[in-house]
Write a structure and sequence with these properties.
The complex is a heterotrimer of chains A (185), B (320) and C (444).
Chain A: H1 2-23, H2 26-43, H3 48-71, H4 79-82, H5 87-123, H6 136-166
Helix pairs in contact in A: 1-3, 1-6, 2-3, 3-6, 5-6
Chain B: E1 3-9, H1 18-32, E2 36-41, H2 52-58, E3 63-66, H3 90-99, H4 102-111, E4 115-123, E5 129-131, E6 145-147, H5 150-158, E7 162-164, H6 168-176, E8 182-183, H7 188-191, E9 202-204, E10 213-220, H8 221-225, H9 229-249, H10 251-263, E11 267-269, H11 273-293, H12 295-310, H13 312-318
Parallel strand pairs in B: 1-2, 1-3, 6-7, 6-8, 9-11
Antiparallel strand pairs in B: 3-10, 4-10, 5-8, 5-9
Helix pairs in contact in B: 1-9, 4-12, 5-11, 11-12
Chain C: H1 2-17, H2 23-43, H3 55-66, H4 72-87, H5 89-101, H6 107-122, H7 126-143, H8 148-160, H9 169-178, H10 182-210, H11 228-254, H12 260-277, H13 283-316, H14 319-329, H15 334-351, H16 354-371, H17 376-390, H18 398-406, H19 412-435, H20 438-441
Helix pairs in contact in C: 1-2, 2-13, 3-13, 4-12, 4-13, 5-6, 5-11, 6-7, 6-8, 6-10, 6-11, 7-8, 7-18, 8-18, 8-19, 9-16, 10-17, 10-19, 11-12, 13-16, 15-16, 15-17, 16-17, 17-19
The chains are: A mainly alpha (185), B alpha/beta (320), C mainly alpha (444).
The structure holds sodium ion (NA) (2 copies).
Chain lengths: 185, 320, 444
Amino acid sequence: MRSINSIAHKIEVISVAIGKAGSLILPLLILTILINVIMRYVFNIGLVELEEVQWHLNAIVVMSCLAYTYQADEHIRVDILHSRFSPKRRAWVEILGILFLLFPYVILVSWHAWGIASYSWSLREGSPMPSGLPARYIIKGVMALGLSLLALQGVAILLRNVAFLIQPSSVSAPSTSVNKGTFHE
Amino acid sequence: APVRLDIQSAWPLTLPASGQSAQHLADRLKTTSEDIKVKLYSAGKLVPALEIFDAVQQGTLDAGYTSPLYVAGRFPALQLFGGIPFGPSAIEMLDWVHNGGGLEIWRDIYAKQGVVTVPCGLMDAEAGGWYNFEINSIDDLDGKKIRFAGLAGEVMNKAGASVVLLGGGDIYPNLERGVIDGTEFSMPAIDVAMGFEKVAKYYYLPGWHQPAAVNELIINKRKWDSMSTAQQGLIEDTCRETQLWTVTSTTAANSDAITQFKAAGTEIKSFPPEVLAEFKKGTEEVMQEAASKDADFKRTLDSLNSYREKIALWSEYKGS
Amino acid sequence: MSELFVFLLFSSFMLILFSGFPVAFILGGVGVLFATLGSILVSFEIYDVAELRTIGFVANRTFSTISSYSLIPMSMFIFMGYMLDRSGIAERLIEAMRRVLGKTPGGLAIAVVLIGVVLAASTGIIGASVVLLSTIALPTMFKAGYAKWISAGTVGATGCLGILVPPSIMLVVMGDQLRIPVGDLFMGAIIPGLLLATSFVLFIFIYALLKPSNMPKLVSEEDDSISKFDIVLDISKALFAPLLLVLTVLGSIIAGIASPTEASGIGAAGATLLAWSSGRLKWLDLRIVCYQTGRSVAFLYALIFGASCFSVVLRGYGGDEVIENALYALPLSPEGILFCVIFIIFLLGFFLDWMEIVLIIAPLVMPILVNFGFDPVWVAILMALCLQTSFLTPPVGMALFYIRSAASDIGMAEIYKGAIPFVLLQLLTLSIVALYPSLVTWLL
Ligand code: NA
Ligand code: NA
């Protein structure tokens, strides 16, 4: 049990670290928008690159936080019945949901996303705007990575719920849900 | 054997010239063939316009009706088929693509990707754009915010304008509120649907940046190879017919649209020769830069230039 | 045949929804399961289905979503909301308002609505404003002897105003999905939003006159010793900064100085400056605001990704045509069909969140309604008004859940009861805007 939980824990350390690091890009995004505004309205310079940088940064925030958000159990649920389920039943919901909904969806889409990213890499694809950013494969790679990380986080939550079903006492703090990680600020 | 062909258009199927051509192609194929079962999807129904190529390349989508401009980030050379500043007229464009070696290069670039292209829609000249200021000299463009795409956008940048990136739906409100001072869009028959005459004072004609353009039907190579020669031939012939249909579908509509703009109080203007000369100089620089960065671009540009040299005398003497 | 599968697709989603598994993954998962079913059906020569290869589109669409420039304001407005939350503005406002309105019938509740409008105009996240109002206003209201149910209703409905009053992430997502300029939606929503808030104030005032026992006036304590001038000064000080921010962000969009993305970035920077100048912003706070924003943004995008998977599979099964044919087959005038659509959205709002409705239903019905000649901005605002109710209608009403999570000493039954008058007011406002489209189009 301990080893199952420790594998889950290791995965979650990665999810949280990447999510937190990614979300710290937000101030940089705000700064980029400010610079863009100042350039345009004060100096009359419009840079396509700078506008593309904005959505690149935003995309990194989004993709790096997908798994982190699942770890923090903040993906929206309809919890009208869920909140009344017994912990055991909730664990079953999570296990079945991960196996039959999350995995088929996220693994299939990230498989396609890796295809798109590696094809983009093989072409050394850039922006369709001549003065846009080069190396579009990087951001496509970020998309594939973010989705894969979400699948991995799914593995972690699956493991924790399985461990809970086998041995309920293996969840350290009884007040927190099995799905909720232990990394809250 | 009968073949099923899912096609998605890059434009709404009701949009004159581009989207309507996709509809025309599908309708013709339905009438003339019983063993090609076409299912046509409108813009964005399955996949966003910029991602059509990837979907066809991966085989997720059988075919796409799109513009080679949309793959400029992947294959810069193909911009030369999707509209060339100071480029050939529509008929010359057709001649270069089909008889002057253009299509060979085009198909060669796609061959390595597992995608087959069939030129499938000939677009007449675009307009020079909508502006809220007069362009009497190149200095008038200095610091102006203009929405302009592709190679021509680079030329505008060199001319001193600040080029802005905007999606189709955002152009109108930004022009209305003065966030941008001008925009290039399309030909009058298409511009009329956008209502720009309500928010811009001047309409510049003709469009130096795109005298002609070709749309394409791209088909996944495996799908293409699974078809019989007769089926492939029928698609190619129908596309040739679609070229003719497209280029003749907007002539009267363009005229009508201009009448409508005039009635709405739009001032129709043309760029002064000095300004055009500057644009032309800028275009040459932009072309040289693009050619030096990409071998395929250079190869395509060389083919186009040698074709234009070959027909130079006739172009000159026939008048236009 | 198509009708059957479309029905199955929707009903499986609705059923599995109640398992409590994350909605985003249910949307995506159900999409993939039906694509798998489609691949099996095709081998039996049953066509017009989505196949497994259809899921390839989902990756393309996901990339298109994260590369959308027009969705950036969503992240920025969320950041702005969490930052304002940190700045302590709301606490100062409620203290100042309590002094001014304490002796008016229903004064405390009216103060909550007015603060709600200020919060709504400075941010676009309802979760934060409902929780904020619940934690700071509910205890004050209970202590003053306000009935629990009406207090909860006021806080819940007021907290939702932020999703209608611009800036609003719902309008940003609508603009992106329906290809309507976000600036137009923002302007169109201003008058309906204020109208809705006015209806809340009038209702509270009248109700307080009729039933003073449920909304007693404040018994004055220390307040008499403070001069009117001091009170006005207090309120002005509390209002100055947030109003300045609101005017900068909305003003620059409306005046055509900045695009929504630019304005949202300025707003996020302004809120940070505000929090910093109030002396409350520490390095740790900035980090926590980033983490919170990152998680909120991620769950919203995850819903967009999932809904996009569901939608593309729905299309493969001919969902577009099924719904189009069903609507056209109604023996009704265009106005009648519009009424039906709004009514269906109202019903769906009992079970679904605004995101699912905006992402799946709105793109299906919008082209049909625009085809009838209705103004797209007006239709979108009607939908937005209708979606306001979805936060307050059981069993799935996000605002109700937020109240319960933030206030421990109130039962779910009382929260449900409190929502009823406000849902009726929302429907009343919806009808007024439906009858007078110029309320939306006048500012455009
Ligand atoms: Na708002
Ligand atoms: Na509801």
